What we know:
Blueprint lengths: L1 H6 L1 H6 L8 H9 L3 E6 L4 E3 L5 E6 L2 E6 L5 E7 L6 E3 L8 E6 L3 E6 L9 H52 L3 E3 L4 H7 L4 H13 L3 E4 L2 E4 L3
Antiparallel strand pairs: 1-8, 2-7, 3-6, 3-8, 4-5, 4-7, 9-11, 10-11
Helix pairs in contact: 4-6, 5-6
Amino acid sequence: MENQIEKNIEHLRNSQLFRGFTDDEIEKFLYNTKFKIFELNRGAILNVELDKSIFVLYGSIASYETNIDGVKTFINHFEPDGNELIAISLDTPYPTVSVEARKKSVVLSLETNSFLITDPSIIFLQNKVQQNIISIFYRMTENVMQRIIANAESLSKNKIIKYLRQLKSEQKSDKLQIPFTRQELADHLQMDISTLMRELKSLQESNVLTYEGKIITILNI
């Protein structure tokens, strides 16, 4: 274990898991915790053991879930940039989770439910690790929400453009007469009025179109 820690101390030091730790504190914590460090070459696959948490210390990792029928599903992509934690806590052998290195990577497997010592100084370090795990979860959740919002906005914009292209084909003109009020158009496109107005404004600022009342003039679609 000592060689694993010494060899990877720089990766451990830079991990969000050990934010605020000295090298001595990292070593002290790991010496009193069940852990493994895996060095994975590109394409290497690691089956995750039950009740383990995997942290990406270096490289790039994809995680997959395999159900009882053997169907493999991509879960997420992880890198040591705040999106480094793959938390695993399974009560049954299915679904099983595996990770695959997309390039040379180093991952830490940590059994956070099985701390070995109740010494106050170790408990203090355990609490610091748990606080860092919560922070990582928060950042990951925030990143996911930002991606969901971005995808939703992109979908809304694509709906508007698709509708305008269809209308342009029907009216054979770049100056389109919209047969709806703004609210009716939002309902027709299955989005709320605030989203419609925000996306129209964005398209206008991008010189894609201009709009006034029920007239939309296409500039670049």
